Amino acid sequence: MASPLASPHDTPDPDFADLLAQRPHLRAHVLDGLVMDDVPLVNIAREAGTPTWVYSAATLRRRHAALRDALREAGLAASIHFAAKANDSLAVLRVLGDEGAGADVVSEGELRAARAAGIPASRIVFSGVGKSAREIALALEEGILQINAESAEEVERIAEVAAATGREAPVTLRINPDVDARTHAKISTGLAENKFGIAYGDAAALYARMASLPGIRPTGLAVHIGSQITEGMAAYRAAYARVADLARALLARGLPIERLDCGGGLGIPYRDEIAPTPAALAGAIRATLGPLGLPVMLEPGRWIAGPAGVLLASVVLQKRGQNRRFVVLDAAMNDLVRPAMYEAWHGILPLAPDALHAPLAPADVVGPVCETGDTFARGRALPDLPPGALVAFLDAGAYGATMSSTYNARPLAAEVLVDGHRWAVTRPRQSHEALLANQVVPDWLGAAA
Ligand SMILES: *Cc1c(COP(=O)(O)O)cnc(C)c1O
């Protein structure tokens, strides 16, 4: 095949049947086309319009349970804290909270979202490299499970806020283990050069300092080395082994440790990546941290929510360029930024029953935003997709809607939850009025000409 038309990958793209076989919540129905659980996605696109994010409640529950069961079968006392930055939809957080999940939050907004969805503060972890005094105060006021501190400066700040509010702060120290998660540079977090965590060599002294501060209750150690980790368990094992060594040293000095936080990062197959299983992760935790006999925590985001969501879009037009077919959608990089930001590959399936079996030809799938980076796929084998045809981006349930913007003054897309045969709009499409509503033109600019 001529190179400008070919996919940039050196292995063939998975075909529609391969993509569906890996995703049990999606199937191709002869009359209804692409169906999520018991709901034809065409119905949702027709009634809610496009672009629209659609999440499968059953898939969220199933994946949360798979992680929980793998940890249990490894003999670990473990709790799961869903990383809300992957998906902060209140409906999604409610589904997971009802399953017993806690949350990992990185801002006041996410803390409020988790609480609004009914997740008790006693199951919420506050992570992040730059928590403000206001955020710390709110977390303590809510009675948060733990704050993961990322620097000596932050520990002092937490102690000050605790003293000022008369509360005790449960603080876990996030260690930077200096291991290479071998993921995309923009989502690698466990290298010494990254901004995250306390340098390993400084951690013991800081932990002892925490124990001496009156407002602080040291609760343990945390590590999170990056996201979309697919290259086996070696990086996880290396990071957890360093945490285990440090924990042993601290315990030997008589310092208290209540639990160990194993972070998130478990990858998923977007294209044909061989992603590690929950059992492999649980095994790595047991082998390294298990002998300490302490409860462990997991902060998965992408692994739970990624496969549970799709982004529905409509074709605006097919543009025949020189040697290329461009499929221009009504979804754009402001909706799903992962391809532009991380060169990410997302499966794209047509929704109509006949289109799932029609002849294929290469196409570049793009959005209408005025950036060349607004390209979802190059040289993708797709059927003829006339104006109005519908498609679904797969695995869009994590770092999809949460990373959206209104770039090009495009309103935020709608969100929908599917639960069995039921579905509901959980966030209506933002209106153009709402997009302009909170802006002010100063009086001193005078009246419009
Ligand atoms: C982003 C993040 C997570 C979740 O990462 P995933 O790759 O989505 O599992 C967990 N913990 C922390 C501290 C994070 O920043």
UniProtKB/TrEMBL annotation:
GO MF terms, alphabetically ordered: diaminopimelate decarboxylase activity; pyridoxal phosphate binding
Residues carrying N6-(pyridoxal phosphate)lysine: 85
Keywords, comma-separated and alphabetical: Amino-acid biosynthesis, Decarboxylase, Lyase, Lysine biosynthesis, Pyridoxal phosphate
GO biological process per UniProt: lysine biosynthetic process via diaminopimelate
Cofactor(s) needed for function: pyridoxal 5'-phosphate
Residues annotated as binding pyridoxal 5'-phosphate: 265, 299-302, 399
Quaternary organization: Homodimer.
Protein name according to UniProt: Diaminopimelate decarboxylase
